[in-house]
Amino acid sequence: MSDDENVIPISVVDTDDYEQVMKKLDLIDQKVEFFNSEVAQRIGKKIGRDIGILYGLTIGILIFLLYISLSSIVY
């Protein structure tokens, strides 16, 4: 075996170019995070609405059943 097989390739980048690329990547990352948070918020609103409807139906049914049971006692 020779030493040529164990050589690790490296690259040299100008620091200004590297900083510009990192700033662009940070901007893209912020946009992706914002989009993901907006999607999660919309899903949360839909789930909250559905849970609210279920609670409303349940309470309405309970009130209706109490009304029927109490009205039968009075008459």
From TrEMBL:
It is a single-pass membrane protein. GO terms for cellular component: plasma membrane. It comes from the Archaea. GO terms for molecular function: tetrahydromethanopterin S-methyltransferase activity. GO terms for biological process: methanogenesis, from carbon dioxide; methylation; one-carbon metabolic process. Pfam families: MtrG. It catalyses: 5-methyl-5,6,7,8-tetrahydromethanopterin + coenzyme M + 2 Na(+)(in) = 5,6,7,8-tetrahydromethanopterin + methyl-coenzyme M + 2 Na(+)(out). Its EC number is 7.2.1.4. Keywords: Cell membrane, Membrane, Methanogenesis, Methyltransferase, One-carbon metabolism, Transferase, Translocase, Transmembrane, Transmembrane helix. Pathway: One-carbon metabolism; methanogenesis from CO(2); methyl-coenzyme M from 5,10-methylene-5,6,7,8-tetrahydromethanopterin: step 2/2. It is an enzyme of class 7 (translocase). It is found in: Cell membrane. The chain crosses the membrane at residues 52-74. InterPro entries: THM_MeTrfase_su_G (IPR005866). NCBIfam families: mtrG (TIGR01149). Belongs to the MtrG family. The complex is composed of 8 subunits; MtrA, MtrB, MtrC, MtrD, MtrE, MtrF, MtrG and MtrH. Part of a complex that catalyzes the formation of methyl-coenzyme M and tetrahydromethanopterin from coenzyme M and methyl-tetrahydromethanopterin. This is an energy-conserving, sodium-ion translocating step. HAMAP family: MtrG. This is Tetrahydromethanopterin S-methyltransferase subunit G. It comes from Methanosalsum natronophilum. The lineage of its organism: Archaea, Methanobacteriati, Methanobacteriota, Stenosarchaea group, Methanomicrobia.
